[in-house]
Amino acid sequence: MRSDRGQSAPLGLKIAAASGLLFLHLPILLIFVYAFTTEEKSFVWPPPGLTTQWFAVTWNRPDVWEALSLSVRVAAISTAIALVLGTLCAAAVSRTKFFGRETISLLVILPIALPGIITGIALRSAFSLADIPFSFWTIVLGHATFCVVVVYNNAVARFRRTSGSMIEASMDLGADGFQTFRHVVLPNIATALLAGGMLAFALSFDEVIVTTFTAGQQQTVPIWMLEELIRPRQRPVTNVVAMVVVLVTLLPILFAYYLTRDGDQIAGSGK
Amino acid sequence: MTSAVSFQKVSRHFGSVRAVDAVDLDIAQGEFFAMLGPSGSGKTTCLRLIAGFEQPTSGSISIFGERAEGVPPYRRNVNTVFQDYALFPHLNVLDNVAYGLMVKGVGKAERHKAAEEALSLVRLPGYGARRPGQLSGGQRQRVALARALVNQPKVLLLDEPLGALDLKLRENMQEELKSLQKALGITFVFVTHDQGEALSMADRVAVFNDGRIMQIGTPEDIYQRPRTRFVADFVGSSNVLPPDFVQRYSGQHRWGSLRPESIRVSRAASGEGVAARLVSTNYLGATTRLALDADGLKLHAVVPAGTALPAEGEAVMLTFNREHLHLMDEPA
Fold first, then answer.
1. Which of A7, A47, A219, B201 has CB atoms 3.0–4.6 Å from A224's, for a disulfide?
2. What is the domain range of residue B144?
3. Which pTM value belongs to this model?
4. What pLDDT does residue B131 have?
């Protein structure tokens, strides 16, 4: 955003913009501040004292590491599944016309439109009906349902902007299906997949509702945090974890934003 | 000599639509062959049948004597210049041109050398490092041409390759394509809806309508001796004359055609000729096109610019040389 040089916005507008930003980000900053508080039983404002001891405490708590590791593994595998299924589905829907194409398109997007609690209950009853014990893999399946949507949406948009004759040109020049995918399709959709994959990863990482219905005894990071808030001991540890998670997820999201921002120059500029 | 491309009773139906309907076709080696027709006439489908993007519903296709049905596009020694050029936006110009050699496993140094040569051939030397997005329409077209030619195809297919270019560029490209084809000796099959383009470039022209070939012949054949009303009208907008009219001048009850430039228009209100009324004049630069009404029969005449013309709405007398009245095969 750039206004004309020398002209500054009216004071009222500046105040409104600043309060909007504060409203959005002040709570997050508060979480950061509480990570340094000396009071461990409850959150009091202002903090009675500042300390960095909670970082060391967090580092030495095995339950934090377990939750983090589970979350990362679930997110990674759900994202991988979503990348394969989402791309295939997007390719089918955007490349060919077939009976029920619009219906499939809608059905793929539905899981993200449905409230998570519906997806969660549905999956839980499906799993118990099929006698599948709750495990790491049931969480992955639950997360994959909405990760697919994110990848699909990104891929389908990119496919639409990619000229269909490019694939024919590749075949015409002697490339078989696999070579065409490797040398033409993949380079053109790669950034869309990367962006979709990162969003899917982030979604899976902070998912609570579906996880509570599909997890057994395992705790992902968000579930661990919820449990932790009830226990009146070493509260700032939660804040330390929250802070780390924010910082770690912010970077990929900024990167994904950067990648899709100039996506226009990547595909579909054939004409 | 075996034909470069041969169609025997080839049909391609999409559901109930007969895009190509029982087409017989023989394209000779080294020929510059044009497929001319309005959109939806089946000419592009024929091109895609040769390229392998479509398979015939029935009939057989052979390319240099080899049966082509079921052979995928990547196993045919045929290359295409696409209407939208279909350059790969993620590769630079050199890698675009070298693509065909790359997928065949030719080493980097060798394929880049061949690509450079192909770029010189289309008069774009030194453009290798650019991206397709940085090129003008005419330059992209040349890159598309180089990308096809680098594979040394036996047949080069061109799908309306000049459609997106402006007039001046189009005329230059026509000459260049023609001389390139002569120099390389490759069979060119060219799809166009522009009759001027087909007539000026091709050795032979096939006129398509409704999935069928109406007439195949040299440009002169097609232009001077159309066999059906459709060909007469589509190629150079000839005047189509009804059998009753033709009978008065030739004694035969058949459909006839008369080229607009064969009609002489004079002011005389009586005497020999066809009495008509000048409906409108249309100035075209080198020539002027006249719309005429001869007792309900609508005719067109083209006269050189600078000819003294009667006013619109005036009565005129039309004369023509009877040799120029062409009788068509189409039954009356």
1. A219
2. 5-232
3. 0.78
4. 92
